[in-house]
């Protein structure tokens, strides 16, 4: 949404002030309304629960039924040939184990992504530059970011000059992206082509910048104001 709006529209929707930023009172009220700037966490399941859940699949259920039917037919016919049933059950159990392993890897990747998030952020509130935990950023915050720092929240650029951001964590592209706040983008623009946006966990590789956090609930979007090596 934010990448389709003009700078004036972004400022208007956020009801913020580019000169002094939000007040502490405004920031507190917004935070109480939309929540903290961090990924939501759900209760972790036990390994046993994950294993059992792997069998909640139509094709797996069909295979289990097939194994039972094969075993019953072998018993009725008196052949005592349960090899087919054993093979099917082995495949089903192996599939469940692999599923649990893949989920565990996915959880570790998510934990790694959380660790990549910037622990603190510089913001302008009441006209003063403060360092606050990144979890306390709210929609409308005026964020200051520097070369080599992680972006603390998805951001909409307001002003920039030769701003380059490394976005391999999102797109897999290792070449830094040159940003431009003046471009007009469509709603269905891919993330890799959103030149007027910067995203959380990506890294600034050139220039000193400022931004206005435009985070909305757990989707962080902010207005970014980058200047040529100078923080105003």
CATH architecture of the largest domain: Distorted Sandwich
3D shape: elongated
Give, in order, the helices and strands: HHHHHEEEEEHEEEEE
Tell how many strands the DSSP assignment holds.
10
Distance separating the two termini? 28 Å
Strand arrangement within the widest β-sheet reads: 2-1-3-9-10-4-7
List the uncertain runs: 215-232
Beta fraction: 15-25%
Tell me the radius of gyration: 25 Å
The helix count comes to: 6
Major sheet size, sense and barrel closure: 7 strands, mixed
Structural class: alpha+beta
Q: What is the CATH topology of the largest domain? A: Calcium-transporting ATPase, cytoplasmic transduction domain A
Estimate the mean pLDDT confidence.
78
Whole-number count of domains: 2
Tell me what you see in this structure:
- The chain has helices spanning 7-14, 24-34, 47-53, 58-77, 83-116, 168-171, and strands spanning 120-125, 128-133, 141-145, 155-159, 164-166, 177-178, 197-198, 203-206, 208-213, 223-227.
- With 232 residues, the chain is α+β, with helices and mostly antiparallel strands.
- The chain has 2 domains: 2-38 and 118-227, Distorted Sandwich (Calcium-transporting ATPase, cytoplasmic transduction domain A), CATH 2.70.150.10; 47-115.
- The protein has a 7-stranded mixed β-sheet with strand order 2-1-3-9-10-4-7, with helices on one face.
- A hairpin with a 2-residue loop joins strand 1 and strand 2 (128-133).
- Helix 3 (47-53) crosses helix 5 and helix 4 runs antiparallel to helix 5 (83-116).
- The protein is elongated.
């Amino acid at each position: 949404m934010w990448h389709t709006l003009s700078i004036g529209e972004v400022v208007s929707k956020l009801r913020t002030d580019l000169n002094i930023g939000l007040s502490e009172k405004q920031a507190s009220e917004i935070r109480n309304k939309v929540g903290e700037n961090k990924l939501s966490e759900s209760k972790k399941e036990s390994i046993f629960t994950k294993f059992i859940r792997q069998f909640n699949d139509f094709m797996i259920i069909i295979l289990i039924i097939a194994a039972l039917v094969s075993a019953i037919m072998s018993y009725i016919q008196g052949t005592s040939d349960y090899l087919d049933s054993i093979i099917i059950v082995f495949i089903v159990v192996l599939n469940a184990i692999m599923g649990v392993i893949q989920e565990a890897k996915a959880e570790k990747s998510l934990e790694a992504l959380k660790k990549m998030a910037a622990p603190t952020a510089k913001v302008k509130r009441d006209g003063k530059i403060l360092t606050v935990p990144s979890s306390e950023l709210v929609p409308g915050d005026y964020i200051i970011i520097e070369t080599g720092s992680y972006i603390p929240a998805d951001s909409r650029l307001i002003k920039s000059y030769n701003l380059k951001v490394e976005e391999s964590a999102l797109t897999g592209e290792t070449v830094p992206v040159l940003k431009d706040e003046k471009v007009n983008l469509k709603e269905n623009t891919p993330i890799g082509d959103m030149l007027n946006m910067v995203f959380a966990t990506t890294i600034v590789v050139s220039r000193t910048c400022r931004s206005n956090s435009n985070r909305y609930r757990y989707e962080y979007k902010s207005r970014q104001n980058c200047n040529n090596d100078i923080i105003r």
